[in-house]
Specification:
- With 205 residues, the protein is mainly β.
- The protein is 0% helix and 47% strand.
- Strands 2, 3, 6, 7, 10, 14, 15, 16 and 17 form a 9-stranded antiparallel sheet that branches.
- β15 and β16 form a beta hairpin.
């Protein structure tokens, strides 16, 4: 079963930036993007930007290339304003039937809304995906699902992303039985990567 992977925004008036993403499938690098090759406010191809409040309707150009919000010469991919929207990488597909690993750098602009990213998404039809999300106030990142097998296990991490700081994420998916084992690490980019998994869950199918 092949599904697409995305780093996405789930937000209300929150600036969000993706500073680069690498995907390894079956232990080989399958996709890498730093966004440094694009000009400011460019709209990279292959991404489906959902309309605010209507996620199955496309709103092209909602997510764009911006300068690094922390300074420096590198570029980032994200959005400003426009509540409750996602962007999905639709030009690539990755299989859930083998080891899958995603690493990325993410930025949260404000503390007044939810944010996160989805993976193994079939958006927009059917709107099924797994999601790592942090709510506006209280709690850390949490693993959720929509219209697919619900994960069980350690679903919430103890690290909460503060505004105006870069964080790194490592997501590992491996087949287990008839389902998946999903593990996530999330940490401040100024610190060393933790050795333990903060989220560790399995799905039935």
């Amino acid at each position: 079963m092949a599904k697409s992977i995305v780093a996405s925004l789930l937000a209300t008036c929150v600036a969000f930036a993706l500073g680069g993403v690498d995907v390894a499938s079956a232990q080989e690098l399958a996709y890498a993007e730093s966004f440094d090759s694009y000009g400011q406010e460019a709209d990279p191809p292959g991404w489906f930007d959902s309309a605010p409040g209507n996620p199955v309707e496309e709103a092209p150009g909602l997510f764009k290339i911006w300068p690094d919000p922390a300074g420096g010469a590198n570029r980032v991919f994200g959005k400003r304003g426009a509540a409750n929207s996602f962007t999905h990488l639709r030009s690539r597909q990755f299989s859930t039937s083998s080891r899958f690993e995603l690493t990325a750098r993410v930025w949260r602009g404000r503390d007044s809304g939810s944010f996160g990213w989805t993976f193994f998404s079939t958006f927009p039809s059917p709107p099924a995906y797994f999601r790592i999300r942090q709510l506006a106030y209280g709690g850390g990142l949490r693993l959720e699902s929509s219209e697919c097998s619900a994960p069980v296990g350690d679903l919430e991490g103890d690290v909460r992303a503060r505004p105006l700081a870069w964080y790194r994420v490592r997501l590992l998916s491996e087949p287990q039985g008839t389902g998946l084992r999903l593990r996530v690490r999330f940490w401040d980019s100024a610190l060393a990567e933790p050795s333990s998994w903060q989220i560790d869950a399995v799905t039935a199918s």
